[in-house]
Structures are given as structure tokens and as C-alpha cells.
Amino acid sequence: MLYRLFYFEAVFLKEHAVDALLLDIQMPDITGIELLQTLLQPPKVIFTTAYTEYALQSFDFDHVIDYLNKPIRLPRFIKAMERLKIQLDLESNAAEASSLVVNNQKVGKLETLVVKEDKVTYRIPVLEIDYIQSWGNYVKIFTNNNQVRLARKTITDLEKELKTNGFERVHKSYLVNKKSVKAINGNQLILQDQTLPIGGAYRLLVKERLLK
């Protein structure tokens, strides 16, 4: 919203959020600069005035975008509006980016695991991964559609990356997707088409977490 503000509208401004103001410096009873100083969260402002001596003072505020001398010429007004739009767009984009970062931090989940095998890059949907097996300096990634990918990663690194996706370390050589576990039989995990060992050091923790 864009308002041309007079003194009697000051109360409205304090109670309602606006994007920008076209604000006259010389107003009855109060100057535009004085009014701006009363606002805790001032919007973007374009000052207008017939008094050029206020120009430098008006730019003491970070949120002042431009200063228009009266009489206002249309080309100059358009230029000020373009500056305003750029600033509002920048703030909007920054807010969206910040929100995205926060949401990603809250969710903390990977949707896709990117791995290289024989110089070919594969994107594996995390939801399709059943389990991961350590293989020396590599790992084997087994998916629920019977694909196996060999990637130069450590199982410890993948354990950290996939922790918030419901993957649990069940053995020094195995990382398993909890959703793929059908049953626990003694020291073994039963998956759809595979049985995995449970390492002694992981036994109590695995049963506690997978039986929830």
C-alpha cells in the first residue's frame, strides 16, 4: 500500500503496516522528519518538499529512498518509483530466502542423494533407499527398486547426512532406512528382500529406536 500522509493519518500509520510512504516534509503541526522519528518500524519513504535545505537531513534515515523537489516532474517521479520498487523487491526476495533457510533448518531433511559412479552423476531419491553398506573407501547404496549404486563416500558421512531422514546405523558396515525394516529377529533386521546383521555395539539402541 502507498499513502500520501498528512498529520491526521499518523494514527493510522502507527496501527497499520504499509510498504511505502510519499511523505511531505512540511506539514501542519509536525514535519515529515519528526513524524518518521516517532515510528518504531518505519516503511520506505520518498520525501517531497519545496524546501531544498531539508534534502541532506532527510537522507539521515536508512529507509529514505528518494527526495523529490516540488513542483514534481513526471520523469523524476517515475525514477523515484523505480528505485522504490527495486528496494521493495530486494526486501521481499531476502525475506523469502530467509524463510526458506529457516524452513530447511527446521525440516533438516534431504530429498535427493547425489552420488558419482564411474564418472556418471546419479540423483537418488532418499525415500527409495533401503540401506547402505560400507565397502572399503566406498559405499553401496541399495534402493527399493533393486538398484545398487557404488559411491566414493564413507558410511559415517552418510550417517550424518541422513540422520534426520530416519536412517539408523545398525552395524559398523550398515546404515538402514527405518521405514524399510519389516521386523527384528534376534540380532537381525528383516527387510523386504534382505536380512541385515545388528552389530553388538548398536543392539540396544537399534531395538529401542526401531521398535518405537
From TrEMBL:
* InterPro entries listed in its UniProt record: CheY-like_superfamily, LytR-like, LytTR_DNA-bd_dom, Sig_transdc_resp-reg_receiver
Q: Known SMART domains for this protein?
A: LytTR
The question of whether Phosphoprotein is a record keyword is answered with: yes
Domain named Response regulatory is located at 1-85
**What are the 4-aspartylphosphate sites (modified residues) in this protein?**
24
A single Pfam family it belongs to is: Response_reg
Superkingdom assignment: Bacteria
Entry keywords, A to Z: Phosphoprotein
UniProt KW NAD keyword? no
* One function term, GO molecular function aspect: DNA binding
Q: Which residues form the HTH LytTR-type domain?
A: 113-212
Return the protein name: LytTR family transcriptional regulator
